[in-house]
Amino acid sequence: MTTSARRGPYVCGIDAGMDVVSGKWKSLILWELNNHGTRRFGELRRGLPGVSEKMLIQHLREMEEDGLVHREVYREVPPRVEYSLTEHGTSLNEALRPLGEWGKRRRERLVTEDALETA
What we know:
Helices cover 61% and strands 12% of the residues. The protein contains 5 helices and 3 strands. A 3-stranded antiparallel sheet has the order 1-3-2. β2 and β3 form a beta hairpin. It is globular, with a radius of gyration of 17 Å. The termini are far apart. The relative contact order is 0.14.
């Protein structure tokens, strides 16, 4: 199911990487699946407060198309669908780990700066 033309041409590796993780929720979906393992749709939605059903569906479809997420449909009543990271998704999550560490330090710095400004 090809719905987007997100296949370049890319100027550099960062351009190609950012194309795959663009969107507010994709990095959080990667984090959620990495930290909690296989999740059903409702579990993912509860783990990402503020995400709309439409946006979560859209991002999961794009991530499945990009080979980051595996969608398993169980033929039972009621139907059950589970999402998990693929090897490609796990490797992207590892590549994003240093960015997450940088972001954590930034958050700490901002808290410190805010405390100094209000003191």
